[in-house]
């Protein structure tokens, strides 16, 4: 079966966007029971699960063929190239359709466009690859479908020290497809068989360039003659006509190759419709077209891009049928539970070092840290810098509360200790305030404009004087007796200025319509005619002689126009049209600025060097509480390292138990009975508002005081509470549930029990007394950190 061509647009696209289409693969790495994907270009895609990979579950799960999604992606890439080619052909500004019409037979453009549209239907999902017709110039849908069924990747796994390593070896199916078609189409082409540029090849291009330049020069000279027709004669025009006829498109070898090579036409869809001798744009040095040779459309910008392409390993990539695309190192669990699971930070170098685990800010309870950077390009190194700092282990809400209570406590202490001084300072601070600044109205303005401002005076523009030949009186002339009558017009003459009288006679002899449509041309023609006929005089002796000589002058001018100027104009216009046609015929060949020869058969290769790799870091951490900062630095080649991401982590120990104090209130009144000795007991109301202190047990999880989001996670904030009153601590007991609205600021709903006395009264005396615990009712309290209340206690002295 005859191979058909396919492409990704990689090589040609290097001029505008240095990128190429990579074969897509769906591969999964089992991670704690969750499939982990590679991206479409086989880059590892971190899941950001914050846990190490399971050493027992790190096997590869893969499909050996393209998935439907990968097929869609591949078709999308090819569709972009087809759409670009169709767009360029339909865009008149590119001139491609015009070039095709001059180079190839009229039916080629129609056939080529038809095949492109049929391929587009398949790529866009509008048609299936069934009973594919013969495609002569573009890849057939059946050939693409056949390639999509082949295996695409091989992955080798090996254990490492604390990690599992995977080498993702990718078979570049599309590259292999392109390479096969490239070699086949080149071998079966009878025209582009050379591998090196020789002198005959250069001479053929030189002839084309020289004739193109000659024709352009002839065209410029013809335009100059037309613009100044009075200064040239027919001999000059005939000479240019002969030169133009000699500079036609040469039917030399390169013209024949371009016209009849199927190789060039079979790769037009790959180059966006642009005609190139070598569709890959790059070749070996012997096949490169020298920059020193004339190349009219090879601009400095294109030369710069071509230089960039020549420096890139374009051919090496094109011919690689397989390579180690990515070496992935996945940190795995040790299998023991003695040490806490590490915090795992993952970064993707290909995604600007973005991390799904970037929201993690805590290292808790001796938790180690592991950092993995995936998909680092081969020419790039990544290093880490570490820095430690101090950390206050309290929530931001507590910190703000402390910042308010501490200065207030100082003020109240000062106020109670030095009342007179505080009063004096207060009096000073409350002295009579300064007068308010008054705004003064600036007088003398009118409508907001200063009287010092004067608008510029209006000045009338100067009127120009224009010379005109209307009514044939270009100047104000005194009355004279010399005049001639032409038709119904009377032409006054000076009788003294011969050239002026000739000019008036010739202008008057012309019809109004002719004068209006060619006034500039006729003005110049009259002046040239007068100068060429300086020896001709008007006879002023009699009216008859004046009319006779004036009429002879007019007839001579008309003959000058009809027999010399007009034929010359026609000849020049014909010359311009013929030269333009020759330029149009040769321009499509000259516009082929990439004239390097294809390198010939390209052998398939395999790249054993990985193009991307993984870097792992295991930093040492400070004691809790503390700050740990790290920054990742990227160095590309010999460039200076630059910071690509940074992270600040808080090393802490979460709390299972904590202590708090606060102020609470009973919802129900209660009474307390008291008696001293044998006196009758006294019953009084118990304090419904109490300062309380108690212990919290976070039975669902552990409290992180720095995770100060409002309400937070219930498993971190719920606690069982047991407390006492600060006053009469042994008489009031509280038990209930607590919730940290912010860490350290707690709402407590509890049951209040208190110790009470009971008495047996005999003869108005206490005969017997006993202590018991009674229920006072539900209790609600707002508690804070003991330090916070301690700082604020000065408020209540």
What does the model show?
- There is one protein chain.
- By secondary structure, this protein is an alpha+beta fold.
- Helices cover 34% and strands 24% of the residues.
- It has 20 helices and 24 strands.
- A six-stranded antiparallel β-barrel has the order 17-20-21-22-23-24. Strands 4-5-6-13 form a four-stranded mixed β-sheet. A four-stranded mixed β-sheet has the order 8-16-15-10, with no helix packed on it.
- A hairpin with a 2-residue loop joins strand 1 (27-31) and strand 2 (34-37).
- The termini are far apart.
The total of beta strands comes to 24
Q: Uncertain runs with pLDDT below 50, 5 residues or more? A: 1-35, 414-479
Strand content: 15-25%
Largest sheet: 6 strands, antiparallel, barrel
Q: Mean of the pLDDT scores? A: 77
Strand numbers in spatial order across the main sheet: 17-20-21-22-23-24
Span between N and C termini?
101 Å
Question: Which bin fits the share of residues in helices?
Answer: 25-40%
Structure class: alpha+beta
**Overall shape:** elongated
Number of helices: 20
Instruction: Calculate Rg over CA atoms.
Output: 49 Å
What key attributes describe this structure?
20 helices, 6-stranded antiparallel β-barrel, 24% strand, 797 residues, alpha+beta
Summarize the structure.
The protein has 797 residues and is of the alpha+beta class. The chain has 20 helices and 24 strands.
Record the SSE blueprint.
Blueprint: H1 10-13, E1 27-31, E2 34-37, E3 60-62, H2 68-90, H3 96-103, H4 106-123, H5 141-148, E4 153-159, E5 163-171, H6 173-187, H7 199-227, H8 234-246, H9 253-260, H10 262-266, H11 300-311, H12 314-319, E6 320-331, E7 343-348, E8 362-364, E9 369-377, E10 380-389, H13 396-417, H14 419-429, E11 483-486, E12 489-492, H15 498-509, H16 512-517, H17 519-532, H18 543-590, E13 605-607, E14 612-617, E15 626-636, E16 642-652, E17 657-666, E18 671-674, E19 682-685, E20 689-697, H19 714-717, E21 718-725, E22 732-742, E23 745-762, E24 765-784, H20 786-792
Parallel strand pairs: 6-13, 7-9, 8-16
Antiparallel strand pairs: 1-2, 1-3, 4-5, 5-6, 9-14, 10-15, 11-12, 15-16, 17-20, 17-24, 18-19, 20-21, 21-22, 22-23, 23-24
Helix pairs in contact: 2-4, 3-18, 7-8, 7-18, 8-18, 13-14, 13-20, 15-17, 15-18
């Amino acid at each position: 079966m005859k191979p058909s061509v396919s492409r990704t647009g990689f090589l040609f696209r290097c001029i505008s966007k240095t990128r190429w289409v990579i074969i897509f693969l769906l591969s999964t790495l089992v991670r704690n029971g969750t499939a982990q994907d590679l991206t479409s270009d086989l880059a590892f895609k971190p899941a950001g699960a914050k846990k190490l990979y399971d050493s027992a579950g790190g096997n590869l799960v893969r499909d050996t063929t393209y998935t439907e999604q990968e097929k869609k992606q591949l078709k999308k890439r090819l569709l972009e190239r087809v759409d670009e080619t169709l767009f360029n052909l339909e865009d008149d500004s590119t001139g491609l359709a015009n070039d095709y019409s001059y180079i190839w037979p009229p039916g080629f453009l129609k056939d080529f466009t038809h095949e492109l549209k049929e391929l587009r239907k398949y790529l866009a999902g509008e048609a299936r690859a069934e009973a594919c017709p013969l495609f002569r110039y573009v890849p057939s849908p059946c050939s693409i479908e056949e390639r999509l069924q082949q295996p695409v990747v091989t992955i080798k796994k090996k254990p490492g020290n604390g990690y599992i390593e995977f080498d993702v070896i990718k078979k570049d199916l599309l590259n292999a497809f392109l390479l096969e078609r490239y070699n086949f189409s080149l071998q079966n082409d009878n025209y582009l068989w050379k591998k090196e540029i020789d002198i005959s090849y250069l001479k053929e291009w030189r002839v084309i360039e020289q004739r193109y330049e000659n024709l352009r020069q002839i065209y410029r000279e013809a335009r100059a003659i037309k613009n100044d027709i009075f200064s040239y004669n027919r001999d000059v025009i005939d000479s240019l006509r002969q030169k133009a006829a000699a500079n036609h498109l040469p039917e030399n070898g390169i013209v024949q190759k371009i016209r009849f090579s199927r190789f060039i036409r079979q790769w037009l869809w790959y180059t966006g419709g642009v005609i190139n001798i070598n569709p890959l744009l790059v070749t070996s040095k012997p096949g490169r077209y020298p920059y020193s040779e004339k190349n009219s459309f090879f601009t400095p910008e294109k030369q710069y891009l071509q230089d960039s392409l020549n420096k890139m390993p374009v051919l090496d990539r094109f011919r690689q049928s397989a390579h180690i695309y990515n070496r992935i190192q996945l940190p795995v669990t040790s299998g023991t539970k003695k040490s806490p699971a590490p915090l795992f930070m993952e970064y993707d170098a290909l995604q600007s070092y973005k991390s799904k685990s970037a929201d993690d800010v805590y290292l808790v309870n001796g938790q180690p840290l592991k950092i993995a950077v995936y998909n680092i390009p081969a020419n790039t190194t990544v290093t880490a810098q570490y820095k430690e700092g101090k950390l206050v282990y309290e929530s931001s809400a507590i910190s703000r509360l402390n910042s308010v209570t501490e200065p207030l406590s100082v003020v109240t202490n000062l106020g109670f200790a030095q009342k007179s001084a505080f009063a004096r300072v207060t009096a000073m601070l409350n002295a009579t305030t300064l007068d308010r600044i008054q705004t003064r109205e600036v007088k003398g303005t009118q409508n907001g404009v200063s009287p010092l401002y004067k608008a510029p005076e209006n000045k009338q523009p100067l009127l120009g004087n224009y010379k005109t030949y209307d009514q044939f009186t270009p100047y104000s002339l005194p009355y004279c007796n010399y005049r001639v009558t032409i038709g119904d017009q009377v032409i006054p003459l000076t009788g003294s200025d011969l050239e002026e009288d000739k000019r008036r006679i010739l202008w008057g002899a012309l019809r109004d319509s002719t004068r209006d449509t060619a006034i500039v041309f006729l003005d110049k023609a009259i002046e040239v005619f007068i100068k060429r006929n300086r020896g001709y005089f008007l006879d002023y002796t009699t009216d008859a002689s004046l009319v006779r000589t004036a009429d002879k002058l007019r007839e001579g001018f008309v003959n000058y126009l009809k027999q010399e100027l007009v034929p010359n104009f026609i000849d020049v216009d014909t010359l311009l049209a013929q030269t333009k046609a020759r330029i149009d015929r040769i321009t499509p060949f000259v516009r082929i600025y990439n004239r390097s020869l294809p390198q010939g058969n390209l052998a398939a290769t395999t790249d054993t060097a990985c193009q991307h790799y993984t870097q792992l870091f295991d930093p040492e951490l400070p004691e809790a509480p503390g700050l740990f900062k790290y920054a990742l630095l990227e160095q590309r080649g010999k460039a200076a390292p630059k910071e690509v991401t940074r992270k600040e982590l808080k090393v802490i120990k979460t709390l299972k138990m904590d202590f708090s104090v606060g102020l609470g209130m009973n919802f129900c009144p209660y009474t307390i009975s008291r008696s001293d000795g044998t006196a009758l007991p006294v019953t009084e109301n118990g304090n419904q508002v109490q300062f309380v202190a108690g212990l919290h047990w976070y039975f669902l999880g552990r409290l992180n005081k720095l995770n100060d989001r409002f309400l937070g996670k219930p498993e971190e904030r719920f606690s069982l509470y047991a407390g006492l009153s600060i006053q009469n601590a042994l008489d009031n007991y509280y038990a209930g549930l607590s919730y940290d609205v912010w860490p350290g600021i707690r709402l407590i709903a509890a049951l209040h029990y208190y110790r009470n006395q009971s008495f047996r009264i005999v003869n108005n005396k206490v005969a017997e007394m006993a202590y018991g615990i009674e229920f006072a009712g539900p209790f609600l309290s707002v508690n804070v950190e003991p330090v916070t209340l301690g700082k604020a206690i000065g408020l209540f002295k």
